[in-house]
Amino acid sequence: MSLKTTFFLLAFLLPVLSFAQGVRGIIVDETGDPLPMVSIYMPSEQVGTTTNLEGQYEISLEPGEYKLVFRSLGFKQREFKVTIRKTWIDLDLTLEPQSYQLREVVINPSGEDPAYAIMRKAIGMAPYYLRQTERYNAEVYLKGSFRMNKIPRLLKSQLKISANGTEVPIEEGRTYTMESMNEITFIAPDTFKHTVLASRSSFPAGNESTALGFINSSFYEPDNDMVISPLAPQAMRHYKFRYEGYFDEGNYEINKIKVTPKRKSQQLVTGYVYIVQDLWNLHSVDVEAEMFFGDVKVKQVFQPVQENAWLPVTHQFDLDVSMMGVKAIVDYSGSVKYKEVELNKDLEAPEFLVEEKEEILEEEPSAEAPKSENQKKIDELLSREDLNNREMMRLAKLMEKESDQTEVPESLELTSTYKMDVKKDSVKRDSAYWETMRPVPLTPLEQNSFALGDSLARAAENKNDSTDKKETGLLGEIAGFSAFGKRFYMADSTVTIDYDGLIGLGNVNFNPVDGWSYKQSLRLKWRQDSVHQMIFKPEAAWAFSREALMWNASLSQTYAPIQRGYLEISAGDESTDFKPGRVDVAPFADMVASLFFKENYKRYFDHRFSRVSNGIDLSNGLRWDLSATYEQMKPVQNNTAYSFFDKEEDFYPNIPGNPILEASHLMAQNSLSWRTGITYTPRYFYRIRNGRKIMAHSDYPTFSLAMEHGLSAFDSDADYLLVEGSVKQEKEAGFFPALSWEAGGGWFARNEQMHFSRFKHFNGSAIPVRLTGGPSFRLLDDYASSTNEWYVTGDLEYSSPYLLLKNLPVLSNRLWQESLHFNYLYTPQLTHYTQMGYSIDQIFLMGSVGVFAGFENGEYEHWGISAVLEF
């Protein structure tokens, strides 16, 4: 054999030979049954792994001495020291059931379970442990399996996956498996950089990336998107806790706490949390939840990777899907190897953690640094044997406040907190690589899954190579885009044309003024560069009963992308609602009411207009808008009495009902007006996406001030001046209560002549079903409250996942929100009108229904039921 040949053979075999040794075996219980998902941790390497579903494990190691810690919930921990040389060591283990001891406790006079004292300190410490780690770098192995046990006959032809352009059906009973090696870099408070080093999947088209969301989440985080954590500040409102004893593990005592929801809910978990005595951090988690799509089980095992920093080293996530006749099993497991961990040095540790660290280091205590006032209060609370709920909340807030002080002053620019990179050729790793790097052995089913997946991919590729593609004929293509619309690309794709097609619900409308109308529209976009674009949107419709052509067009140009500059020129001639830009009654809802119930809520006028508008940010959070409009307004009348069921009775006349309405407000007239306004939101967070600024959120209210002036110049009949202002704050409802509010007022300094459309109108309608949410007067007639004198208004909405009806056992498992509403309006014609209501929201995630009552001057006026459907 030549020297050159020998060199290349050694280069090829070196990655395999260098790890052709380690430790492996099978772990069983006392009856001999394999134990799946046993945590195996090596403190010196800061790496964790698990057994597979058959209790097998296999760890490739370089020669040397290692300490192995075997832990499974419900079993006694075992530790072994092994010396690895040049061969595999077979180490089979039997784990004994964990016995729990009951600690002598002082009985609380109220008879409260000892678990509550433990959980209050754990909840109080949660903000500290959430922020304890400043940065880490870790290798994460993730393996997932998916098996469809039952597919309804109607869905069998629909459930397919794409393999090289060919649709491959998902088969019942077949196991699909994926695995990946990943590098995760975490930087506090919430930035993750995810690099896929290698990935492989039995799905023919599933090799690109993997999901690590459940590994990156934390039970210390109070705002978990899926469930309310047992360590959340409000946990005492939602959970019951029971102390089930403790066990010794090395130098630590571990408390076993049973977690039970106080009510049945998809947002609450049941199971066990294990808390380290005197440290009050998580040792492990074993919980499950019943979701609308099936049962979810989550297990996490923590280990002290540095001083008193306990981080999760193994994860298990199981999903039993049962929905709409579909039954499936999804299992994910992950093992973590921490290569680098950096603690938050600016975060002052509580006194008991400092003492624990000194005991571990066996050193003399160093000179104490001055403590902050918050830290003194934290130490005083933690020194108490028992905390009540109020003291627990105070401790959690102090911990969060102390932790926030260590963070770098927050920038208003939000950058992506999750970045993903897929290494080149990550899907081309061979079996030798996986045998070396995989910390969890594959089961025979999983091995068979990869073999079948590879054969499916080859078969699909061969089928594509041997099958001629059928091309659609020219007439068929023209018919397709004519009917349903299409996007066309011109030049070098910098110009796109979107056509909505001839068929579509949005093309048709009906109201008593126009009768049936049919609309066609285009949208032409010219991308001048990555941050500038021009959009032209023409639209034309024919009103059959009025026998009139209606049209509008707009031309807009973006500029100054960081200041969100926007210039638009628009014009049109169409039937327009007297409430300009109203959202309380959508055209489709008004059409349904007219055709099915002979109810016409909207009133229209003939509107010809030309408008120029501009908006730009003067600074972050401070925006200025300016527009000028010339209008010709003429009255129109109903032109049809058609409806589906009552073709004889007429619709209500096309005249808005208002107590101060005069003939001069509806007559034909011209109007030249301008409007300007500024809005300011302090500390408004934003993102820069593709070079353009996009506003995100703020913790502060938004202040607005505007002025509109109708000019009696040229041939304009208008003569009015409106000054108005408002302040509002919106909070999105979630697991925790949210309060949204708005207060505003305005005054017409002049109102000599103005069209009714220029009155101040308020969001509200008596229509029983709306298509948009938001604060509104749901019992007032559409135009009765409009004014041209002055007004004061206020809105308040309080939302909570548990408020009234959801406390009932029969409703507690619903993913609904409950809201209380309060609306106030004061005008010269409508004095001290208040509306109060209660609603259930997010029904099927898209609707709400509520009951409301209206009062004027404190006296009852009316009540009604209102529903919202948001598609």
Number of helices: 12
CATH architecture annotation name of the largest domain: Beta Barrel
Q: Mind describing the biggest β-sheet?
A: 19 strands, mixed
Computed structural class = alpha+beta
CATH class of the largest domain: Mainly Beta
Residue share in helices? 10-25%
**Cα distance, first to last residue?**
73 Å
How many E-type strands?
Answer: 42
Low-confidence stretches: 1-19, 204-210, 357-367, 464-472
Instruction: Count up the domains.
Output: 3
Radius of gyration: 34 Å
Mean pLDDT: 83
State the CATH topology of the largest domain.
Porin
> Strand share of the residues?
35-45%
Using the alpha-carbon principal axes, give the shape: elongated
Structure description:
The chain has 871 residues and is α+β, with helices and mostly antiparallel strands. It folds into three domains: 21-99, Immunoglobulin-like (Sandwich), CATH 2.60.40; 115-346 and 375-421, no CATH class; 565-869, Porin (Beta Barrel). The protein is built from twelve helices and 42 strands. The protein has a 19-stranded mixed sheet that branches. It has an eleven-stranded mixed sheet with strand order 14-15-16-17-18-19-20-9-12-13-21. A hairpin with a 2-residue loop joins strand 17 and strand 18. Helix 7 runs antiparallel to helix 8. The longest helix is centred in the middle third of the chain and has 23 residues, at 444-466. The protein is elongated and about 100 Å long. The chain starts with a helix and ends with a strand. Residues 1-20 form the signal peptide. It holds the Pfam family DUF5686. This is Carboxypeptidase-like regulatory domain-containing protein.
